[in-house]
Amino acid sequence: MPLPTPEEEKQAFHKLVNIESYPEFLPRANEIARAYLANVDYTQDELHTPGAAAPGTASRSLSFRLHILPCFSDEDIEVMKDFGLDLSDVNQVAARSRQILGRLKGTTGAIMPPADHDGPWPEEWIRTFERWINEGHAP
Q1: Structural domain boundaries of the chain?
Q2: pTM over 0.90
Q3: What does 104-137 look like in DSSP terms, one character per residue?
Q4: Can you list the residues of the chain whose pLDDT is less than 70?
């Protein structure tokens, strides 16, 4: 997915900051977040260490709603419902988080999601998911 234009970005930021007034924007916000995450080049930032807080700041805890849910595509969510797992439900994802992590890494079966369905996840997303597990599955 291409990154939004500056004008689209400006409109998206307004809607995101006021998401309570624009609930229909949430799926698009997730698409934009996925596009930005997929296009980040951490090698260009000498100060960035994946998973570390910026210098002089405290590390922010991860939450399902802000950091994990946007990584799951609408297709991921719908497909997994057929297997009895609602990826949009924090409690279900938390209960099966180690199994999900194993599939994201490919250590407990085929890597999910597969390449022909927006997969596999970038390493940064997998590290974020694992950190969310280690921090206690905050909603």
Answers
A1: 1-48, 60-139
A2: no
A3: HHTSSSS-SS-GGGT-SPPHHHHHHHHHHHHTT-
A4: 1, 40-59
